[in-house]
Each structure stands twice: as C-alpha cells, then as structure tokens.
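$ run holo --ligand "adenosine-5'-diphosphate" --emit tokens
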Amino acid sequence: MIFATNKQIKSLITGLDKISQDSLNEKVELSSGISLSPLVSAINNLIGAFTKRIAFLEQENKKSVAILDNMIEGVLAIDKDAKVISINPATENIFGIKKSEAEGRYLLEAIRNNDIAEIANKVLTSGGFISQELSLVWPVQRIFSINASAIIIGERSISGCLIVIHDITEIRKLEAMRREFVANVSHELKTPLTSIKGFVETLLEGAIEDRENSRNFLEIIHEHTIRLDGLINDLLSLAYLESKALALNLEKTNISQLLDKVLEGFKSQFKAKGVSAENQLPGELFVNADSAKIEQVLVNLVDNAIKFNRSQGTINISHQDFDGKVKIIVEDTGMGIPEKDLARIFERFYRVDKARSRELGGTGLGLSIVKHIIEAHGGSVGVESLEGAGSKFWFILLKVIKEA
Ligand code: ADP
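-- output --
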C-alpha cells in the first residue's frame, strides 16, 4: 500500500481551500506523487459536475429574473414575518418605491397600504388564497386586482406570501363606458317610444274621432318615429364602424367635388335658416379616402354647422396643407361651444344642451361617427370654438400628391 505523504495532503488541503475561497474554476493539483491521485480526480470530477449544475441554475435564475422584470403585473414576495423578499419593476412603478429600499423591510413599511398588508396577513395566517379588487388613490389613482397566495414549503409550513398585482383600471373604465352607453341608448329610445305609446293610446281611447286633434297627434307620432329612425341609423353606423369588419374602400377622392354634392343636399336647410355656405377648397384637392364615408363626415359637420348656426349665419369650408396631409376646416358663425365641453364633444351622446339638440333632430352621435371614420383612415379630428362667436371643426387626411 502506498501512503500519502504529509506534503501531498497539505498540498491537497491548500488546493481545496483555494477552491472554496475562490471559485469552482480551479482544479486541485498535487505537487508530486500519485498516492492521492484517485481522490484528486474524484474531487475534480465533483467540481466539474457542480460547475455545470451551478451554470444551469444561474441560467434558470436569469430566466426567472427576466420574466419577473418584464411582467406587466406587479409581483411581490414576502417571508413569513411579512418582510419583503423581492419585488419586480412593475411593483416599483405602481407604488413609486425602489427595490433596494423595499427588500428586507416590513411590507407595511415598504408599501404604505393597509389593505394589501391585511390581505398578506390573512394569507400568512390561513395559508390560503385571496383575490380582491382594490382602489388605490395614492401614489396613482388606479384600480388593481390583487391575488395573494401562500408560499408553502414541505407539507404545511407557510414560509411566505406571493402577491400579484394586476392593473384593471382600463377594463373597469371600458365596462363603465359600456354601461353608460347602454343606459344612454335605452333612455334615448324610451323617450320617443313613451310619447308614441301615449299618443296612440289617446287616439284609441277616442281622440281619433276628433279630426283636428288626431292630425296633430299623428304629426307628433310621425316626428318621434323620424327621431327613432335617425337614432337607430346612427347606432347601426356606429356599430358597423366599431366592428372589426370595417373595410375602407380607399380611392383617390376629389374632396371639393364631394363637398359640393353634400352642400347641394342641404339646399332646403340653408334656405330655411338663411344660412349660406362657401366651399373654398381648390378644385384639384385629392385625398386618399373612402368617399362614401368622408361624405358622411361632411354631412354630419355641415348639418351641425347649420343647426347650431345663427339665422343668416355663414359656413366656410377651407383647407391647410402640410407634410403630405390636408386639414379640412368647417367653420361656422354659430353659438359656439363652452370651453368646458370642448374636450368631450366627440363622445357618444355628449351634447352641450340635450333638449336643444333633440329639438333640432340631433341624436348626439354625429360627431362620434365623424371621429370613428377619420380615425379609421389614420387621421385625426379636432375642434376650436369661442362661445357666442362660432366653431371650427377640422379633420386631417392623407393627401394624394399629384403625379408629375
Ligand atoms: P347632435 O346630434 O346633437 O348634433 P353631435 O354628436 O353631432 O350630436 O354633436 C354633439 C354636440 O356638439 C351637439 O349636441 C352640440 O351641443 C355640439 N355641437 C356640434 N357641432 C356644433 C357646432 N357647429 N356649433 C356648436 N355646437 C356644436
């Protein structure tokens, strides 16, 4: 049997010390002799295996960190004492805190939110799962869905809590808008229907025999049915414009000619109100557009410019060129729009004066249809107005540059 010399053992210990202090990139080397070489190669093999395993774990760790870093949801892990173990960048953004300052602190110290601390506490004591909606007013006003579950290691022991925070503000906003829209539609439909029902009942109860009154009643019923028809047509247009199926039939469109056609259609309204309109668009102005839909845009804008104009007022339709685009401006000399209403004027059913709009046969949907059509063309819409002096509605479309 060959025994290892003291020198060899010392050299082995020095090698192992170096590895434990340094890294696993080292190899144990013996200065001389062969008696320890099987042990040395076993150790070196073990180091090789560890090195591979650690490289694999580092890779896995990098993946997990990348996933957490890129998650839109906030992720927050705390230990069983409610101290923060880890947070991802989304959590930093939501609560306006820094990872380095939050980690290691108690949850309530890191994130000053009692509701989240309470949820975490419940999970740490019960070991279950809690899903709850929270409205945050500070540092940002938003609505979050909080999902907290216990981190269980082994059979029963709760070693912490994992909290996932999902921003659902936009979803809730859309739901509220939908609810409001349904309520508005129901209300708009109900008003004329209630009137129609009332007058028909009165007629049936005997008023039909009174020739003069019955004619009056029928005229009112007729007016309301026209309103209903207009409303349903506008709703159908909107539904169609909002549906994914909307296909634009883009073509080189002479916008000045299109406007002439639209103005011609409003002849009797111009006459009735004594309003005059001037088409100042150059005859050779072409846009890349779905002409039927742009015709609808012009109809809605000119219709409003007449309805909300003063009697004997004027309407000017002009343009501005820039960067291959054209801005079409419909300017009237009407009542104008109060500053506080300007930002919401393109919303569905938004009207400055509901009663007046109804009286003028409006549905409150005309401008939202305009906005939808122009945005579907990749353009934009806007308004400038001075109360009492008039309004300027405009839209921007891509111009067709004349071939050389
Ligand atoms: P409406 O059917 O009521 O005309 P719109 O969506 O076309 O619906 O317009 C919404 C509201 O915007 C109108 O009720 C009116 O209050 C305001 N508005 C639109 N165009 C004009 C304009 N040219 N001048 C003044 N107010 C306008």
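-- notes --
The CA atoms of residues 248 and 376 lie 8 Å apart.
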